[in-house]
Each structure stands twice: as structure tokens, then as C-alpha cells.
Input
Amino acid sequence: MRVEMKKEFEEKSIATAIKTLKEELPSNVKLVAVSKFHPAEAVMEAYSAGQRIFGESRPQELAAKAAVLPGDIVWHFIGHLQTNKLKMVLPVSSMVESVDSLHLLEAIEKWAGDNGKTVCVLLEMHIASEATKQGFSREEILDIASKAGDYPHIRICGLMGMATFTDNEEIIRKDFAKLVTLRDEIRAGIENYPGLPADFGILSFGMTHDYRVAVEMGADIVRIGTLIFGERSY
Output
């Protein structure tokens, strides 16, 4: 799967890759162009091609890019976020997709309260077979959802996850299905989670090698980097 996609896009410029993806993706699926490890000049190429949502995973890199790039860029933070780096990320991010611990959730709530902000987040669910990947269990997410009212300055918009790193599509589908099933379960009983927004349910899953499967399975956001920017530049 990875080899075929690499060949499909390897000759394309950033602008052409953006155009190709936007033509392919359904209108209801948001493309987050994962610009981490790529320079501001590459982001501007994608911006000039019409892309507006970008994903970063390192606080210093995000802050540096946000300071020099157009102000209408919508930044999503998609990496593991340490609580001592919130002041770099939260002022410029429209969404933190990767809330993976109760400690982080509580720290975001405190920062948002202190600064009079509401922060949009996705709860990261551990769906992959690799133990090294971050994220909550199903039970932990249900518990947080039941206590969402404890975080008045956080808008829990939905769920995010990363599938097992494999070319086995059956495994990928099983991983993605965990997100879809849990989202549907919460939405079906949304009255039991009064602290959640009524439109809770955004799902962010699918990356360069598996985004087509993700779209087929109902992803609202796909996070694509290599197909757009090529291999990381630093």
C-alpha cells in the first residue's frame, strides 16, 4: 500500500498534490496537511495552492511557523504535548487533536481558564497494537465523557487515533472500527454526557498510507504529510 502511494505522488509538486487530494476527498472530509519537519516555505507552497489547515507536532516549530506565516492558517496540534509547552501551542492552535492523558486535559483546562479561552480538543484513543503509541482506553474515554462538565473551558469535539503501523488492511480496519464504534456509542447516548457538545463526534484518523480506508470508514479529518511534502526535510 505504501509503495504504490509513494509512486503515485512522488513526481507531483506540493501544489499538485494538494489539488489531487482535494479532488479525491469528499467535501465533508477535512484535510490536515501535516507540515511537521518541513520549512515555512513548503507550508507557503501548500497555502498558495489553497490549503488552510496544517498539522504540527513540535511546540517550538509550531510557534515559529505561526509567527511568520499568514494569520488565517488553521493550526492543529497533532503530537504528544507536554504540559510545560502549553503556552507555545494553545495561543495559536485551533484544535489539539492529541489529548492523551488526564494530566494533559487538566492542564489545558487550567490554562484555558486562566486565559479566558475555550480550547477545542480531540481525545486520542489507543487503537493500535503497538504499546508505545499514546492514548486513552475505551473505558477511560467513557469516564472522561461522563465528566466533561468538569472542564468548562474545553470543548471535547471527538476522537483521534492512529492505526497499527502495518500494510495489513484488515488490521487497519479493525483499529479504525474501534474509533467509529466508540463515537457512535457516545452519540447514541449523548444525553448521558451533558458536558459534551451536542455535535460531539468528529473523528480524526487516517494518514498517508491509509487515508483512503479511513475515508471509506467515515473519517471527518485525515492527516496527510508525506504525500504532500515528501520525506521530512530535517
User: Anything to note?
Assistant: The mean pLDDT is 94. The longest helix spans residues 169-188. The first strand starts at residue 30 and ends at 34. The chain is about 40% helix and 15% strand.
